[in-house]
Amino acid sequence: MVLLGTIVNGIAIAIGALLGSRLNGMRKEIHETAMQGIGLVVIVIGLSMALKTEDLILVLIAIVVGGMLGSWIGLERWLNRFGTWMEQRVKGESQFAAAFVTSTLVYCVGPMSILGGLDSGLRDDHQILYTKSLLDGFSAVIFSSTLGVGVLFSLVPVVVYQGGIALSADWIAQLLDEKALDLMIQQVTAVGGLMIVGIGINLLKLAQIRVADLLPAIPIAAVCSFFF
Fold first, then answer.
1. What is the DSSP code (8-state) at residue 80?
2. Do 193 and 53 touch, CB atoms closer than 8 A?
3. % helix, strand, coil for the chain, step of 5
4. DSSP letter at 151?
5. 3-state class (DSSP) for residue 38
6. If you write DSSP's letter for every residue of 39-60 in order, what string do you get?
7. What pLDDT digit, counting tens, does each position of 80-110 carry?
8. What is d(CA 170, CA 173) in angstroms, rounded to the nearest whole number?
9. What CA–CA distance (Å, rounded) separates 151 from 138?
């Protein structure tokens, strides 16, 4: 089921938001420990994806060229600016609006949404979105306990956004022959896996990798798989 990962993600946000609305906050140590545990799991998932390819040279080319292109465009910078702009727009508005916008940005503006949606559509593999569901559900507890019930309604744009990516990827997969599709999936999965490792490293605060700047590596890997 193509949309299974997206549906689970939405349910996780709903459960987290409802739990958080009944709490007055969570100890910082508990939150940090949980996030570190999730970060370790994310790295393991990313490595397992990255090691599925037999053509590491193509992966290297895609990551380096894609990273250079993303940095030149400034994808990470633009995403951060967009988040800041949206937050400023709701500063003077109700707490409901602030909760809705803030949580929607956290759940949607990031590589994991894109990579998870692609994996669901291309491979019918929801592992990334299941992991994201843990992250989002836990974050929803925090946000809802401090910002209010508006967090609950952020699941609507999350489901629409990620579901759209998954359905689009599934449609593209049906247009390609099986051999070409398998090769493309292998390369895109490997590149995406390395980006997932980067997300895990960021969660553990070992370094600050600009993962969003690496996003162009995905289409580059897909295109290169047809020629190499």
1. H
2. no
3. 80, 0, 20
4. G
5. helix
6. HHHHHHHHHHHHTT-S-HHHHH
7. 777 677 667 656 556 777 778 778 877 886 6
8. 5
9. 12
Cβ pair 155, 118 in contact under 8 A: no
Cβ contacts of 2 within 8 Å, gap of 6 or more: 120, 121, 124, 166, 167, 170
Q: What does the block give as tokens for 3?
A: 């949309």
138's tokens: 């836990």
- The mean predicted confidence, pLDDT, of the chain is 84
Both tokens of 111, joined, read: 């590589």
Tell me the angle at which helices 4-20 and 127-147 cross, rounded to the nearest 10 degrees.
20
Model's pTM, two decimal places? 0.74
The CA distance from 111 to 75, in Å, is: 11
What tokens does 227 get?
């020629």
Residue with tokens 């702009």: 85
Scanning 21-126, the segments in alpha helix (DSSP H) are: 28-50, 56-73, 75-89, 95-108, 111-123
